[in-house]
Each structure stands twice: as C-alpha cells, then as structure tokens.
Batch of 2 targets.
Target 1
Amino acid sequence: MFISFIIQHTEVQINCKGLNAFRNARRVVIKLGTSTITKSTGEIDHVQLKNIVDQVAKLRAKDYQVVIVSSGAIAAGVESLGLKARPAAIPELQAAASVGQGLLLHEYATLFSEHGLKVGQVLLTQHDIVHRQQYLNSRNALKTLLKLGIVPIINENDATAVDEIKFGDNDTLAALVANLVNADILILLSDIEGLYTCDPRFGGDACLIPEVKDITSELEDLAGSVGSEFGSGGMATKVQAARIAIFACVGMVITNGRRPNVLVDIMDGKRIGTFFIPRKKKLSGRKLWIAFGKSTAGSITVDDGAVNALIASGKSLLPAGVVASEGEFQEGDAVNIKDMRGRIFGKGITNYSSDEVDRIKGLKTSEAMEKYPESMNNEEIIHRDCLVILR
C-alpha cells in the first residue's frame, strides 16, 4: 500500500458518526497550505484567496466561529521582493517572511472587510506551545478574539524563529491551534485530496480512503514527505496533525483547497477528501499539553512486560521495565517511550535524569532504593498521571 497525492472529486455522505461531528460543530480551524493560495510560480493567487475568504464569510453567516492558519507569508514576500524563486538561505527566508506577513494580513483584512468582518493577526512560535504559561496565554487570547467576533489569522513567526522556517509546518501548528481553542473541526486545505490505498503513479487501483479511525504505525509508514515547491509540508505532517486532532477530540479533514465551495460543502456534511474520526473521550488539558505541546528531550525504551502494564493496565513506569535511554534529559523533561522494536507508543514527564535512568534501569524498585538511596526520590520513573499512551 501507498499514499498518493492526486485530486479526485469524489462525493459521498459521511456515516452517522462522522455526520454528527459536523452537525454539532460550532468552532472550525482552517489551514490554508501554500499551494492552496499561491500560483505555480509561487506568487499569491489573489483570486483564490478571495474565493476562500468568501467561503469563510458564508460559514460565519451560519454562526460558525472560524480560525485561519495561513501559509503564504514567504510566498508573498518573494513576490513583493521580485525574487525568481523561494530563497534557500535562512536570512533571505526571514526577510521574505517579514515583508510578506504584513502584505498577506493586509489582503486578508481588506477581503474580510467586504463582508463586515475584522481580522486579528496572531504569530506563534514553539515557545508559545512548549511553555505552559505561554500556552495558556495564547489560548486565552485566541478565545477572546473569537468571542469578539474577530477572525484570527495565525502563522508561525517565520521572521525571527529559525527552527520554524527550517523544520516547521502549518499542519502541526493548525492541529495545536485546534486543541488550543477547543475546535470541533480542523480542515487542512492543500493540493491533495486525501489518503489513498496505493499510488496510481506507479500502477494499481488507487482508492480514496474516506475515513480513518486510528493513526497506526502502518498508516504512518505510508506517509511520504513530498511537499510543493513553495511549501514546507507533506503527507507525513498531515498524518501527524491528524494524530493531534484525534486525541484532542477534533474531527479532521484533508482535501483539495481548490475544489469549488469546498469549505461550505465540508461543513454541510458532504464526504470530501479523508475524514479522521475523533476519539470519544478527550485527554485532559495537561495530558494533551504533555503529548503534543511539550517538546521531547530524549526517549526511554521498555520491555514487552512494561508495554503491557502501561497500555493495558494503566500502570506507572517503574525501573524494572526500562531497557535503555537515549538523549540527555533532566528531571521534569518530556521523553518518548518506545517498545523493543523502536516504536514510540507513549510520552511522559520523567522523574529522573538520563544518567539516573541508566543507573537504575532493570532493577526492582526495592533494589534501586537500596542500591541508590540518594537518587531514589520517586518509586516511578514516570507516574501514570504524567504519562500519555499514544497508541
């Protein structure tokens, strides 16, 4: 099996479970990929941007609250500066983003004003998501904008954040924003229609996958890293975004942003693209932050017995189940939890540093406390209240 990135205008009705997600939705986050609002030359497609804004205005008229996570700042800067292509050097990317961000926001403000709507710019960085206080501040600011009837226009702060330009993607940002504002639906608009059973470019019968209930390791293996010339994301980032959305109880759609009336049709419950069904039970705000807001500093590998205890029995991670650690981390850092095959299935806040984990790994708690009494301040390496199972 493989995933392809082609366009197909398939329409079927969502099943009852999926339809209810749209029928009851009131708050929507829409991610506009670079390919959705730019031409093949990399210039902003002003006609397409107006088309998107007109559709958002229709949603607002139906009493939906809408948040937009918009790519295109660098592309707008490239156009304004008269560059022939997207720069490769970081300083030039920052310069293009700095020029383009203001131009893009001005165009949004002008287009929305034609519908009597106001916009507010919000530039986020990893710092705003990783640090708890900034996380809460960002959430309060966004919810206040929505309460005032303003359409937030969100992007990463590309002009100053080097990591965001080199490695960031607006798919993941949009999913984190959906969690921040407690959205009901996340829509990723790009130049792809959704997930397919195989890649038709290499033969075989490619069928659109209309619904996904769970993000499995097999599904992640299918996702490639292909992105457009002027964008930074690909299918892999969209699958990661779907994982975040599912755990946050947010339904997510991946589809082609240039399909006529795409946003209105989606919110009317028509099956367009691939719909990721949200979980029934949402993780607590703290556990969602641990899982997707706090960056990881390393990883801990555990044996099969510990995997079963953590997943099936909801236990804490004890020293006896630990096989190895990777990276350098300190008490209070977030670490990934891997099984013996190297697959990440959990994440948590560790009570011990990587050096201490290496000393006590494989020992029963009583043995570890007897052998290293000065280090054993907690029985658990990771307490179950600070641990999230991702599978």
Target 2
Amino acid sequence: MEQNFLIDGAANAAITILLAHGAGAPMDSASMNAATAALVAEGFRVVRFEFGYMAARRSSGARKPPPKAEKLIPKYLAAIAALGATGPLIIGGKSMGGRVASMVADDLLSRGEIAGLLCLGYPFHPPGKPESLRTQHLAELKTPTLICQGTRDEFGTREEVASYALSGNIRILWLEDGDHDLKPRKTISGFSAADHLKTMAGTVKHWSQQITKTD
C-alpha cells in the first residue's frame, strides 16, 4: 500500500521528526496540527502518517477500534522505510503512536536508523486503570527519549509516573496542568495551550541538538 505522508517544514531541515497519531484521532487532528506547527517553528521537518485502520476511516467512515499496538509495528516500520530520511531522524507520535514507536526504537537505534524517540502524551495506562501499566519495555529502553506529558494526563499523571521504573535514557518534560493533549486550564495554571506547545517545541529542539550533535 502506498504511504501517504503529511510533510511540514523545510526539506533541508537539520532534523526530521516522524510522528504517528493516537488511537482515536487522525494525523491531521487539531492536537497533531498544533504540535506540528510548534515544532516546525523551531526548525524541524515534521512528517506524519496514518495507520491502516485510521486511513480506512477516511474512505469508509466506519469507526473500527484500533488493533493492539503490537500489530501496528509493521506499518510504523514501513513508514520509516518509505520516508527514507537521509539526515538525523527522530521517531515518535501522539499517545498510541508514540507507544508503537517506543516498541521499535531500540532495534532501529542499534542499526543507526534513528537518533531518538519523542512521545507527546505517553499512554502509561488506560484511563481509570492505573494498574494496567504499559511500561515494562520502558525500564530498559536504550534510545534517547523525550516524553512530553501534562501533569494531569489521565493516561499517567505526574504523581503516578514518579513511581514507575523507567530507563535513565528517558527524560520527561512535565507541563503544568496539561491534559492528554498537553492543554492546561488557563484559569488554574496561568498557562495557555500555546504556551505549553512553545515550551514543548523549544525543549525538543534543545534535546534533539544534544542527541544529534547538531546546531
């Protein structure tokens, strides 16, 4: 199947970021569009793609539930191959997209195909099920990783995540009062969604320069 990408940012950008969408919303959701715009403003080339079940919704309109994350791995690997990035590549995604990327990251890193992993709202557990952790593989992760997480994310709050055994290669940027889309309640936090996205993108830029040795 031909791969359809959404590509934003300069073709000659120093670093490319490949992002997959979350379980319930497409690659051009409001959240993905806003995060992409913030990253492009910091000089990244951002490439987005969709898993097959989400792409099928566009043609059929049927809202079938997503497959298990493990079954989406081949599609993520196919997207990387189709992209054929020649410079430093960071993979990741929103929620489930980042989770799938985290499952393949170490193998790709060992082959020199990627430089890092970026997760925008990692789904540490399903909402309301804090005992159903999705963190086992994160304990030994070797890939340089940045997770951008809202402190009140129902998929993993700051208090919950503090108790998890996570690899020392994982850095977490906590965004005050942010939800799963990193959006804060302005009247409570004093921050706007735009504030948090700017902080996210600036942090990604600094982190990516460290792991790729680029300016």
